[in-house]
Each structure stands twice: as structure tokens, then as C-alpha cells.
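call fold(seq) -> C-alpha cells
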Amino acid sequence: MSELAAAAQDVVVAARRGLLRGRREPRLLALPLLQPVLFMMLFGVVLGGVIRVPGVADYAGFLTPGLIVQAVALTAGLAAVDVARDVHRGMVDRFRALPAPGAAVLFGRTVSDLVRIALTAGVAAATGVIAGWRVHSGPAAAAAGFLLVLTFGYAVAWLSVALGLSARTPRAARTVLLVCLMPLTFVSNVLAPPDTMPPWLRPLAEANPVSAVVTALRLLWGDEPAGSGATPASAYPLALVWIFAALLAAIPLALRRYRRTPAP
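ret:
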């Protein structure tokens, strides 16, 4: 067997472990799957009649792309807690004692995260459809949007793996995760356009990478508010730049931390 084939087999084994673990511990997916449902019920259904966004006729349609990105970010972020638990229990030391390369172990790990991310995105999208959201720009644009969402989630998963390998305990990883994800997902255009925010908060929301991804999705799916000024030529490249910058930073960092993570 060639080295490439052996590495691919190691990736498959590591991914299978991650998927089996998720099946045995369904609570790991409970919060990410429930979050978009609860947010849609609260903001899209209960408060949707009183929330007014300039240039938006249907708030549920405006909200759904943001909730999909938010749910995907949470699902991918939970990888940090899972990896920190492996470090704390000594599993990473066992992995490093095996002949499998570290890259195969981590890529397999993120492949299993990508499957969970796809499931979460599907549930969030289905919730939006039930609330009345529709893609207005055709099947190709719908597929391109979901591909962008999965790529974004994969980048967040790698950042989370790096965080989990750096954290000393699962509790520390969970704390850092919440401190990072809460501002990123709420100080953004997920729930409201930055134009409606206070002047001191608006630049933060506009510079947020989550806002860039959500804007690109809304443009792809025909949900961007009229008169927002966003264009495909500016939104898509900016979202991709954020995503690939995160991947270029997180993958080498995670691999380096995997090799150097001390025993608990």
C-alpha cells in the first residue's frame, strides 16, 4: 500500500471514530440542532410580526441565512470541547503513539465535523422553509450557497481543533468558545442589518467575517435587503478571503499543536 493510500485510510478511520462518537453521544448535536429552531420560533414567528427591517418584506426570509451560518458556527465550534476532552483523557497521546500521521488524524476529525455541520445546516434550512423562507434564485445558487456554508463551517472546525488542542481542559475550551462565538454571531448582520445598529457598534458588525458570509448567502439566495448597497462582486470574494485565511492559519497551527500538546 502506498503512503498516500495509507494516509487516506487513516483519515477514513479517524472520521469514522468521530461519527461513531457523535452517534453514541447525541447530546453533542442536541444544542446545535435545537438552536436554529428556537431562534426561528422566537424571532421569526413570535416577534417576526413586529420586527421591521428596511428593504425587507419577509423577516423570516431575511433571518434564515443568518441562522444557518450561526448554527453551523456553533456546531463547528463544539469541536474545540470534544478535542480538549480527548487531550484531557490522554487520547491524543495514544493517537501520537500510533503510526498514523498527525495530519491524517486531524483531517479525519474535521471530516466527521463536516458531516455534522451539513446535518445542522439542513435542519436550519428546513426550519426556515417551514417558517416561509424560499431560495429565489434557482437550484445552482442554492447549491453554491450551501457549499459556501459548508466551507465556512469547515474553516471554523479547524480553528476549533486548534483551540481544543491549546486548551488545558474541556471547561476552558468551552469558555473560550463562548467568548469568541457570542460576539461573532450576535454583533453581525445575522439578526439585523448593521445600518440599524448604534454608530459605535456598526463598524464591528460590518468587519465581522460572519457578516461577510451571511451577506454573500443573502445575495446568492435573493434575500439581501433592497438598497443595502451590497453586490456579488464585493460580497463573495470577501467571504472567501475570510474563509481561506482562517484555513491557512488554523491548519498549520492545529498540526503544530498536535505534535507539541503536552500530556494532561
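Residues 102-131 form the longest helix (30 residues).
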